[in-house]
Design brief:
alpha/beta, Rossmann fold, elongated, 9 helices, single chain, 15 strands
Length: about 325
């Protein structure tokens, strides 16, 4: 995948509503396998698509990119051997020492790409049409789906779902929506109507913790209003919840992974060069004195094998 293919893939991911990071090499010091302008996509699950550098740079970029996605803040990295840059590092740049036999260096800009919020409005009432229109006017991806056409597969854990079927199959629609575990699920209707719908679903065996997440009535409480104002009240509630960080955000580092997501891989420190690597079979594991050590490359592993006690003592002092 070349740089232009990466941009096309980025566009496709954004249209599908998937969060990812875009990494671009803005400077290189040879020898290096990367080139200025090389790009790669890193998904929230840690999958890299494209080319950003060799075995030394790639795991570092993936690790930093996942943090960028979680925090929603861009980061400029300077990757090189320890002590290579000294004090000549601009403010705001993150220096990540890597022990690479080529002794090259890279400057990589990583930016988060957070897709527009996804809103599904179920129903065909004037309010449903107005809510869809308002959401699109603020740049959201909003889709209006007739109640009979909605299925669980239409929603996801990042979706916001508003059921506005006005008594036409509310129970069945809410049950399908609940099964998708959306970020927000609201039912348009009175509290009395909502209690009847949720009570019916509880009797059908829908778990109570899932029913507790259904907002009834959907939207901020404005009292008796027109259908246009109800649409505004619902959108306002969604904007408020999103601004508070409760909607559509990836879990922070260290937080439990959401259902269906991939947890961040375990990490270890190479005892020879001090580089952070993934604690996985691909990181040349070696067991010594009951502890498994991981390395950035075979060269570091061979140095450790030649005199493990020296590096274990060095690690314990740190």
């Amino acid at each position: 995948m070349d740089s232009w293919d990466v941009l096309q893939e980025a566009s496709d991911l954004a249209r599908r509503g998937e969060a990812f990071a875009l990494a671009t090499v803005v400077w290189r010091q040879g020898p290096s396998s990367s080139q200025q302008g090389s790009r790669a996509i890193i998904t929230a699950a840690g999958e890299l698509r494209g080319w950003i550098g060799g075995a030394c740079a790639e795991p570092v970029v993936i690790r930093e990119a996942r943090q960028v996605i979680a925090q929603g803040t861009a980061r400029l990295l300077l990757l090189g051997t320890p002590g290579q840059f000294g004090a000549a590092v601009p403010d705001g740049m993150t220096v990540v020492p890597i022990s690479c036999q080529s002794e090259g260096a890279l400057e990589v800009y990583i930016e988060p790409v957070v897709p527009a919020p996804s809103l599904l409005v179920i129903g065909h009432s004037p309010m449903a049409h107005k809510l869809t229109e308002l959401a699109r006017s603020v740049g959201w991806r909003a889709e209006l789906i007739p109640g009979g056409d909605f299925t669980t597969a239409d929603a996801s854990e990042s979706s916001m779902v508003v059921v506005a079927t006005q008594g036409h199959g509310d129970e069945e629609i809410v049950e399908r929506a609940v099964a998708a575990h959306p970020a927000y699920l609201g039912l348009v209707g009175s509290r009395r109507r909502g209690a009847a719908v949720l009570g019916y679903l509880a009797d059908r065996g829908v778990p109570q913790d899932q029913l507790d997440r259904v907002r009834v009535p959907a939207g901020l409480d404005l009292g008796p209003t027109s259908h246009q104002e109800i649409a505004v009240a619902i959108l306002a509630e969604l904007v408020q919840a999103r601004a508070a960080g409760t909607l559509g955000r990836p879990p922070a580092p260290g937080a439990p992974a959401a259902r269906g997501t991939v947890a961040a891989p375990a990490e270890a420190v190479d005892p020879v060069c001090g580089m952070t690597v993934e604690a996985a079979p691909s990181s040349y594991p070696l067991e010594y004195a009951g502890t498994t050590y991981y390395f950035c490359m075979p060269g570091c592993r061979r140095k450790f094998e030649a005199d493990p006690a020296a590096y274990v003592k060095k690690e314990s002092r740190c």
